[in-house]
Write a structure and sequence with these properties.
Distance between the termini: 15 Å
Number of helices: 1
Largest sheet: 5 strands, antiparallel
Low-confidence stretches: 1-42
CATH architecture: 7 Propeller
Order of helices and strands: HEEEEEEEEEEEEEEEEEEEEEEEEEEEEE
Number of domains: 1
Length: about 400
Amino acid sequence: MRLPARLLIATSVLSALALVAAPVAANAATGGARAHTAALRTQSGPPDLVHSLFVQTDSTGGNQIDVYDRAPSGLTFAGTYDTGGNGGKESGAVVDSLASQSSLVYDAGTSTLYAVNAGSNTISVFFVWGDRLFLLQVLPSGGEFPVSIAVHGNLVYVLNAGGEGSVQGFGRFGPFLFPLPRASQSLGLSNTNPPYYLMGPGQVGFSPDGHQLIVTTKASGSDIDVFSVGAFGSLSAPVLNPSSTPVPFSFVFSPDGSLVVAEAGASSVSTYTLNSDGTLSAEASLTDGQAALCWITTAKGIDYVANAGSNSLSAYRVGAGGSLSLVGTTGVVGATGAGPIDIAASPSGRFLYAEAGGAGAVDQFGVNANGTLRVIGSVTITPGIEGIAAS
């Protein structure tokens, strides 16, 4: 139970804040999607028992987070919260405005939600109380066009995609972040700001032990960069590793420690051994035969990928030594609305949520024991969404 800790944090936060981030009314004309209630409603139970889905609008006119209550029967709208910054759009992007993974990250251990404001070069920090958000901070990202966030313990790193690209580290003190002096490194890219969607780096994330930081560069070299994380979050220069197939986009880790990377160029998933010196040893690679396999998440030990060009979700099993197999004959386990992008699994792994960027919707699925998916429903969201997380 984390309730006592949450109560302590909430008390200190509320006493320090003069303004509570209450839900705001959305313009009913925006996309004709849905009318939001402006009233602060009574949530459905104690914070530890309220399960929520967070969706980032990434609006260039004012970024917001939509919050939904999650239940086996589907999603119920709970409120909208301003991030205090603006969203952004990479040039050439059609359904994936940030062309990244982990632009919205929920840290269950601290009840904290982190969001990027790509159009403002800032990040926002929220305290999560059930299905309510309290805005704690809006602070510079340490670079241009932030697109992805990684969290491990008291360390938070931001991936900035614009220009030469960079990673910037922050330390967490209580509920607040502060930049760390030796935790910034350039990626040495030659992109514009905003970058072209195929060229901007795709994700930043930690190794399971927190000793290494990984960045995918997509078509800017098709490299997987690995940094060593030292004392007080300091970063080494990156070790550049070529990906097995082109355009490494996003990644997760398997239970046995293999790095599992979604690689868009060949619509493949590849696995690697992450070595202590920052090098990668290729293990396996397997295509699902779909188009634009970019996003990946894990539920019940199975890795699900979103195929933006095929309006489908596929599923992979990772075996011993990083071996790969598709669930079923083709791996395709679900159809989505147009342009599926970010996907998130519930903490229990029982449910999967997929943003359909082209349709402006979130599709909801139940995860079956054999890895296939069953359709629960869909909710309409403001077009342009990117970033999704579940509590």
